[in-house]
């Protein structure tokens, strides 16, 4: 009875704390979104990691439920790791927080066992440290990087990871808990995986484009600094939402349940009923006429076969290299759109050491990435191949292969050299 009073009191204090944060007059919008990102990470990963550790025999809660931990402890744990640390985002706060969090957990876990809430087994301390490494530290890192607007690629990576966990782990188990689908099974199927990858790839490629070209992330409240009009966005205005909608069809087939199709309906309704209006106003405010032109040329929900007005790009080839000249000749034969093909000798600046593509914003791509980027100027078939080639780490591996090859040239070929 005593422990129930303590748990209820802690919950009451926590709700009062959250109410004070919500009702506070002078809101720090930036910190609020940092809290959101931290919360969504902890809330998603904590039950998954705890479930794994319970299955591994590191500890076990006495209360039996679907997430293998008491719901009130899950809530309190999420607040403690997802909200409070975000108020300590200065450079030297992390070491202090890490020590405090570890000390509190090592102190509280035996106390919970004493009150009969859980049972600790061998190596539970290692599990606790692993839990902090897998849940608390990434959540804090995400909120820190967002708050100081650093490393947008890592921030986007967190977003992709959370969406994967929610769609492929969280959602199936949630539906199973409410007995809407049979128990989720994670079987291996190369064909289903390939179909899923094809459907998801426009979103993955679009995310990379938003990071590298737009200098931002897919989340609207961690938005891009530039309007991205090349890559996947030269063919479809909402490739991420398109992929998400199609993924629900594959999930429906995979789990043999029509219930996932509701996700597709909700996704389409969100795009046309909510995102369309919010996006237009926001994009018009940020990009003005450039957005209006793009809006009139690129469809919202399907892919063009040829880009109507992709931003002008220029690709430079070394005409003293037989292989490079052959690739240049191939491009010359294609009916490219807004692609200018030039000799490397025409490049103004430091002499080029690789095939180089320069987009409308002056961003450079070299080597295999340059060739892949230029595919966008042909049609959807070649563009899709280019998105695959350009996707990291595929582009990195392909470039390594090319760099190891010997080309027919008196001097070394530009596509084979690395910048020094």
From TrEMBL:
Pfam families noted in UniProt: PEMT
Residue spans crossing the bilayer: 6-23, 35-53, 73-89, 124-148, 160-181, 193-211, 257-277
The UniProt record lists the keyword Transmembrane helix: yes
Organism: Flammeovirga yaeyamensis
Localization annotation: Endomembrane system
Assigned keywords, A-Z: Membrane, Transmembrane, Transmembrane helix
Taxonomy of the source species: Bacteria, Pseudomonadati, Bacteroidota, Cytophagia, Cytophagales
Topology of the protein relative to the lipid bilayer: Multi-pass membrane protein
Entry GO CC: endomembrane system
Tree of life domain: Bacteria
Record-given protein name: Uncharacterized protein
Broad class of the protein's primary localization: membrane
């Amino acid at each position: 009875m005593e422990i129930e009073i303590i748990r209820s009191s802690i919950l009451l204090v926590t709700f009062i704390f959250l109410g004070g944060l919500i009702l506070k007059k002078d809101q720090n919008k930036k910190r609020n979104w940092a809290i959101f990102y931290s919360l969504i990470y902890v809330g998603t990963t904590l039950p998954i990691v705890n479930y794994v550790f319970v299955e591994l025999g590191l500890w076990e809660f006495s209360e039996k439920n679907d997430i293998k931990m008491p719901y009130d402890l899950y809530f309190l744990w999420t607040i403690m790791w997802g909200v409070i640390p975000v108020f300590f985002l200065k450079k030297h706060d992390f070491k202090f927080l890490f020590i405090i969090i570890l000390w509190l957990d090592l102190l509280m876990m035996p106390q919970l066992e004493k009150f009969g809430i859980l049972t600790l087994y061998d190596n539970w301390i290692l599990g606790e440290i692993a839990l902090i490494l897998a849940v608390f530290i990434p959540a804090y890192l995400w909120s820190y990087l967002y708050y100081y607007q650093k490393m947008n690629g890592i921030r986007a990576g967190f977003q992709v990871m959370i969406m994967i966990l929610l769609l492929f782990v969280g959602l199936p188990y949630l539906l199973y808990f409410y007995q809407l689908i049979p128990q989720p099974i994670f079987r291996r199927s190369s064909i289903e995986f390939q179909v899923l990858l094809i459907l998801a790839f426009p979103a993955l490629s679009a995310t990379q484009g938003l990071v590298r070209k737009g200098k931002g992330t897919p989340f609207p409240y961690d938005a891009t600094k530039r309007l991205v009009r090349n890559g996947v966005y030269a063919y479809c205005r909402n490739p991420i939402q398109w992929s998400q909608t199609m993924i629900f069809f594959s999930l429906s087939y995979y789990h043999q349940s029509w219930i996932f199709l509701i996700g597709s309906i909700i996704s389409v309704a969100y795009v046309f009923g909510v995102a369309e209006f919010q996006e237009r106003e926001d994009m018009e405010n940020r990009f003005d006429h450039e957005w209006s032109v793009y809006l009139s040329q690129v469809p919202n929900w399907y892919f063009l076969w040829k880009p109507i007005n992709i931003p002008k790009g220029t690709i430079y080839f070394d005409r003293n290299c037989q292989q490079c000249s052959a690739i240049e000749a191939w491009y010359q034969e294609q009916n490219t759109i807004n692609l200018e093909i030039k000799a490397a000798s025409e490049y103004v600046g430091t002499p080029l050491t690789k095939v180089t593509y320069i987009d409308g914003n002056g961003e450079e791509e070299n080597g295999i990435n340059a060739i892949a980027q230029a595919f966008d100027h042909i049609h959807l078939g070649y563009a899709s191949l280019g998105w695959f080639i350009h996707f990291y780490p595929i582009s990195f591996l392909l470039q390594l292969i090319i760099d190891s090859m010997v080309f027919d040239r008196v001097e070394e070929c530009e596509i084979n050299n690395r910048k020094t």
